[in-house]
Amino acid sequence: MMDDLDRRSLIKGMMALPVVHEIASAEIVEPTDKAKFAVIGLDHNHIFSITATMQRGGGELVSVYSKNAKGLADFHKRFGDVKVAASEDEILNDPSIQLVAGAGIPDQRAQLGIRVMKHGKDYLTDKPGIVSLEELAEVRKAIRETKRTFAIMYSERLEVKAAVKAGELVKAGAIGRVVQTVNLAPHQINQPGSDARPDWFWDTKHYGGILCDIGSHQADQFVFYTGSTVADVTASQVGNFNHHDKPNFQDFGDMMLHGNGGAGYVRVDWFTPNGLGVWGDGRLFLVGTEGYIELRKYIDVAGRKGGNHLMIVDQKQTRYMDCSEVALPFGPQFISDVVNRTHVAQDQEQALLATELVLKAQKKAIRLES
Question: The whole model's pTM is what?
Answer without folding.
Answer: 0.92
